[in-house]
């Protein structure tokens, strides 16, 4: 069955020998694979994990009905589920304001969304909670920056895996609100151009994370780094003390169809809990089942709509399983029915300040290639003067969704 994928290759006659060789190697390797798969599904794997520091401290790992690790875990360090200062959208968005359909991927022809991600490569990692939370936050920075922004923002999820393991989570699960609390409390999350996603946290023994003690601990080089040249030429990697970053100002939770629509329309995408077991073999269309569920995965809701033919209301949701999954990394699911729990555990966050995306607004402190001029903490510029500051739309009482839709109308006139 798995070999049907290779049908195209088989058609090439010169490849036949190579394929035979590949087949032989695969069968040989699969002996080992089967063994390691057994080790993972068997109780002993979980026992090892439950004996770990992190697991006993944070409670045992749970499996979903389909036998996956439940990736939604609220860690003990996550003691503040919300931090709210501004008026929330339910106070200034009325039901009549809400359009019949709306998505941040197409506001009058403009896409505000940050790039699609894959939490599972280079190896499996249960960091959905960080992906859902940071994707929604990055979207909100792009929305607040307006259509004239000159670059996209992507936030360093690896930093949260390296430094947020007590509050936010790890490759063995975490929470969207925990990720927001962590970024709020620590005061920044770097942009991902100074720390790539590696799908590892210090307790993970998967793939290339395997058994390397302290490689993913929280320190300066695991926050933001640069590498100067090849080591044979005397090169080194060094941490940077100042770098492009964003902050979280406020965060909180909501539930229910209308509250989610208001938050989404007023301020941008939200991170939502869901039962991933219903999604594993989803391919396309509107998921309409309403089985019993448990929240074990986090995704981000970016919009909604109605399918005219069947009069079915749906959410438009971004997953973090790669663009080859579902509708180019997205899925649609029936709205207003709590399908797979999608309307129950929804989190939002607003950005505080972020390094500007225009080269001419001087927000970025320019570092040399080897970072030599970005080593000292003393020279840190005053964040207040340098970064763009978020203005909550509640100040004007006009939702961002409406503002951005109206801009286009004005351009047309
Ligand atoms: C985007 O929205 C506009 C209306 O604002 C619509 O005309 C267009 O078809 C939409 N594009 C896609 C790809 O859905
Ligand atoms: C992972 O890091 C945390 C926080 O630094 C530490 O307490 C824990 O012991 C580490 N766990 C492993 C398995 O290394
Ligand atoms: C975060 O970005 C701001 C604005 O660019 C900058 O002033 C500040 O130094 C940065 N913080 C860190 C820790 O690099």
UniProtKB/TrEMBL annotation:
<dbReference type="InterPro" id="IPR038765">
    <property type="entry name" value="Papain-like_cys_pep_sf"/>
</dbReference>
<dbReference type="InterPro" id="IPR013128">
    <property type="entry name" value="Peptidase_C1A"/>
</dbReference>
<keyword id="KW-0732">Signal</keyword>
<protein>
    <recommendedName>
        <fullName>Peptidase C1A papain C-terminal domain-containing protein</fullName>
    </recommendedName>
</protein>
<dbReference type="InterPro" id="IPR025661">
    <property type="entry name" value="Pept_asp_AS"/>
</dbReference>
<dbReference type="GO" id="GO:0008234">
    <property type="term" value="F:cysteine-type peptidase activity"/>
</dbReference>
<feature type="domain" description="Peptidase C1A papain C-terminal">
    <location>
        <begin position="98"/>
        <end position="350"/>
    </location>
</feature>
<dbReference type="InterPro" id="IPR000668">
    <property type="entry name" value="Peptidase_C1A_C"/>
</dbReference>
<comment type="similarity">
    <text>Belongs to the peptidase C1 family.</text>
</comment>
<dbReference type="Pfam" id="PF00112">
    <property type="entry name" value="Peptidase_C1"/>
</dbReference>
<feature type="signal peptide">
    <location>
        <begin position="1"/>
        <end position="39"/>
    </location>
</feature>
<dbReference type="GO" id="GO:0006508">
    <property type="term" value="P:proteolysis"/>
</dbReference>
């Amino acid at each position: 069955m798995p070999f049907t994928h290779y049908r195209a290759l088989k058609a090439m006659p010169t490849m036949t020998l190579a394929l035979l060789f590949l087949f032989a190697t695969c069968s040989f390797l699969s002996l080992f694979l089967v063994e390691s798969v057994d080790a993972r599904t068997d109780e002993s794997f979980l026992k090892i994990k439950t004996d770990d520091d992190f697991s006993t401290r944070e409670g045992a790992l749970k499996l979903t009905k389909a036998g996956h690790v439940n990736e939604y875990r609220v860690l003990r360090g996550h003691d503040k589920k919300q931090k709210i200062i501004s008026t929330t959208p339910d106070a200034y968005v009325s039901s009549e304001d809400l359009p019949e359909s709306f998505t941040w991927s197409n506001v009058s022809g403009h896409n505000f969304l940050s790039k699609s991600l894959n939490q599972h490569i280079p190896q499996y990692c249960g960091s959905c909670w960080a992906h859902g939370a940071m994707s929604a936050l990055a979207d909100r920075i792009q929305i607040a920056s307006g259509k004239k922004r000159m670059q996209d923002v992507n936030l360093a999820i690896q930093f949260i895996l390296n430094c947020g393991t007590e509050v936010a989570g790890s490759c063995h699960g975490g929470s969207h609100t925990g990720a927001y609390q962590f970024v709020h409390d620590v005061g920044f999350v770097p942009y991902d151009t100074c720390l790539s996603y590696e799908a590892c946290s210090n307790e993970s023994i998967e793939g290339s994370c395997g058994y390397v003690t302290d490689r993913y601990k929280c320190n300066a080089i695991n926050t933001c780094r640069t590498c100067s040249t090849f080591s044979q030429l005397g090169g080194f990697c060094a941490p940077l003390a100042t770098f492009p970053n964003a902050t979280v100002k406020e965060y909180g939770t909501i539930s229910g169809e209308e509250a989610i629509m208001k938050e989404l329309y007023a301020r941008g995408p939200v991170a939502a809990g869901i039962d991933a077991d219903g999604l594993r073999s989803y391919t396309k269309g509107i998921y309409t089942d309403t089985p019993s569920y448990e929240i074990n995965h986090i995704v981000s809701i970016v919009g909604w709509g109605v399918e005219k033919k069947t009069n079915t209301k749906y959410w438009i949701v971004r997953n973090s399983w790669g663009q080859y999954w579902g509708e180019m990394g997205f899925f649609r699911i029936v709205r207003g029915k709590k399908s797979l729990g999608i309307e129950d555990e929804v989190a939002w966050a607003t950005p505080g300040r972020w390094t500007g995306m225009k080269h001419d607004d001087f927000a970025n402190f320019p570092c040399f290639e080897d970072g030599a001029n970005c080593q000292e903490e003393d020279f840190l510029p005053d964040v207040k003067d340098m970064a763009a500051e978020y203005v909550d739309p509640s100040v004007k009482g006009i939702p961002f969704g409406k503002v951005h839709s109206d801009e286009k109308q004005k351009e047309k006139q």
